[in-house]
Input
Amino acid sequence: MTESRIALEAYTLRDFLKTPADIAKTFKRVREIGYEAVELAGLGSIDARELKTILDGEGLVACSTHTSFLDMKEKTQEVIETHQIWGCKHLAPGSMPKEYQTGADGYKTFAQEATAVAKLLAEGGLTWSYHNHDFEFQKFGDKIGMDILMSESDPKLFNMELDTYWVQAGGGEPTAWILKSKGRIPFLHLKDMTTIDRKPVMAEIGEGNLNWPGILSAAKEAGVEWYVVEQDVCQTDPFECIATSFKNIQAMGLR
Output
């Protein structure tokens, strides 16, 4: 197991992960950049054992995955067994399914159903987290969607995988939300925000305007275990983006 706490969200390189050969080639480059862990997402079709062989061969750890919430509900045991093959103990849905995004009642239903699913996954040795975007910061009456998710779920089972960019894009303050999630935020997604032509865009860590000293200080206080670098949209070559983010985050003191 790596001692590094920095991981790469593989979704950043999804265009280079179409086939098993692509995955092997790309993960080799990821390891050469310096990453020792990946969060699995955006991969093309590949046998679980073949993927494990590739990861081991490149010296990479699968610290987490983004897994379909529907699969978690309907293929729970298969999901558990696949994660056991990878030696991976964490997972999160990439987003809340749209059918729950109907208002306060939908958020409440999702929080309760996800808690039940997380309980089943926990019995199989897995830890469940929720990865946000910006839409969860919409207000429903006097409550923000994120507040509903947190208050209507079991904090021992329903963890948070906050995304710094999307919190900011939703009108939230990343540092405050990290601290609000203290004790239930094993994973933190890191991406920066800047502007181009007066529009917000994703940027490499340290190349935008987010308050990284505050974010990292809050993350330490909140008990974050893994810092996951992600950039959904890169303005330059994605490999250059992840290299810049890795270099900058290390310069901030993370290892």
User: Anything to note?
Assistant: The longest helix spans residues 104-123. The CA atoms of residues 167 and 210 lie 11 Å apart.
